[in-house]
Amino acid sequence: MKIFIGILIPFFGTLIGSLTVFFMKNNLNKKVEKVLLGFASGVMIAASVWSLLLPAIDMSEEQGKIAWLPPVVGFFIGIIFLLIIDIAIKYIEGDNIKGIKLNFNKRTMLILAVTLHNIPEGMAVGVGFAGVLANNSDITMASAFALAIGIAIQNFPEGAIISMPLKSGGMSKRKSFIYGTLSGIVEPIFAFITLLLTNMVVPLLPYLLSFAAGAMIYVVVDELIPESQNGERSFLGIMGVTIGFLLMMVLDVALG
Fold first, then answer.
1. Cα(53)–Cα(41) distance, rounded to whole angstroms?
2. Cα–Cα distance measured from residue 91 to residue 114, given in angstroms and rounded to the nearest whole number
3. d(CA 176, CA 93)
4. Pick from 101, 92, 80: which is nearest to 218 by CA?
5. pLDDT confidence of 65, banded at 50, 70, 90?
6. Among 107, 87, 74, 93, which Cα is nearest to 216's?
7. Three-class SS of 118-185
8. Which own/partner pairs from 2-5 qualify as long-range (CB within 8 Å, at least 24 positions apart)?
């Protein structure tokens, strides 16, 4: 039951974030958007280091492998995976896939991009709880919950960032909330799939943890930070990154 609740925690972060659309009067304030983007960036960077890469290094040593090799391989594959997805999305956005015309507007692409990015986050949660089931000394129930809570915190601004622009684009509050919430449903699904494959996953834990870290860092570098620094008052994004990073670091260390 604890693990079942744990894999649902990140989804609830997205759901609560999407709920903010009901408190929105008009357009999303640019200052608030910068802070939310920076905050999400800081949380993801800290989670990638303390919840993913450091445990991956420790597990590599315990398994008798070169400590840095699996994390390097997994991290690099995570970066390449998101890069391929990014290129595919831009190709689709060009309305030309083998001559087939597609009507992908910006709102559709926003939902698709965030949904795809949530997949490795769900895997990261699943991997964490898979380590608990396998009685791995490097992953405790507390640290697995810390990761899930950290991703849920990061998902809160993501849910808001999806639902609020949809509302600004003319969609109803109810539909904006539904689409924002559905973008996070892939996380518990992929976490559950990972749990079902626990016996196969445990030897690959260092690779999968660092894979998720690479995917998250890609999202931060390619999308979140550039958006938070776009235009005036970039210091708001910087402060958001600082607060998010420190919060996630304290959360992970304190619970871990």
1. 16
2. 17
3. 21
4. 80
5. confident
6. 74
7. HHHHHHHHHHHHHHHHCCCCCCCHHHHHHHHHHHHHHHHHHHHHHHHHHHHCCCCHHHHHHHHHHCCC
8. 2/141, 3/129, 3/132, 3/133, 3/144, 3/195
CA atoms within 13 A on the CB side of 39: 19
Q: What is the pLDDT of residues 164-175, one digit of tens each?
A: 777 776 788 888
**Domain map of the chain by residue range?**
2-255
Distance between CA atoms of residues 71 and 67, nearest Å:
8
Give residue 195's identity as a one-letter amino acid code.
L
Q: Which residue has the tokens 């991997």?
A: 127
Residue owning tokens 């008009």: 26
Section 209-235 average pLDDT: 82
- Tokens 């904006």 map to which residue? 176
For residue 82, give both structure tokens: 């998101």
